[in-house]
Design goal:
alpha/beta; Rossmann fold; 8 helices; globular
Amino acid sequence: MIDLIGKTALVTGAASGIGEGMAVRLAESGANLAICDLQESIHDVSRRIAADTGVSVHAAVVDVRNSDGIYGFVEESVSHFSGLDIVIANAGVWRPTDPVEDPKEKAVEDWSLLVDTNLKGVFFTGRAAIPHLAANGGGFILNIATDHICPPPGSATGGGTRMDVYDASKWGINGLTQSWAKRLSGEGVRVNAFCMDATDSAMIRFASSKFNRDMSEEVINTWMKPQQIADLMLELYAEGQEGRSGENIGIWLNHPIELPPKREVLPSRHP
């Protein structure tokens, strides 16, 4: 496992699922942790990780939709650990949305919840962290998107028929990832996104129940596990400052969980 002793990693949405898996693997690698979530249970996760790994953990209840909340948490974390090296913008939500059946009130509420959490939350997290990463001489940002925007070969983009707002929020992350990667290339900060297929988490369990999908133990065992995604994150980080940036990395069921070949960097039409 990679040695991250002396590094500081910040993970949003770390109380469960992929975020918790990322936090655990980072701590097991020696990194100090700054973790936050909307759920009070983030403090239980913090105590458990600290006890299991011996690393220092700073935890807080934070709503990434609130700019003061996430900016304040980043500032507190940087002050607490005297720097920042790794940022995992994981916090996200899902709910079914229907352009035919939903009344105006639900449409407005859905937009505010999904876009503010999944897109604005990633935006605030990155913007709060980027100056500190640049000041530190470089860093690593991983945004969490979806396989809906980066499907396996032979499949179309897009999610289901009741995912218009969710997909819009996740497509927006693509713009942040690519623009930040370009702007920060001279600062030594790499920015990529993971676009995962079904990974065991509260989100996919909730979505499966809403769509009345089979949630037998046999089916759940086919889902990818947060620890597998976290291991791939560490492999991506280990590429170092010369590693890839600006990529959407697809991770799919029934495919090897591995990094694809690094893509050729094409010339940009814009400065």
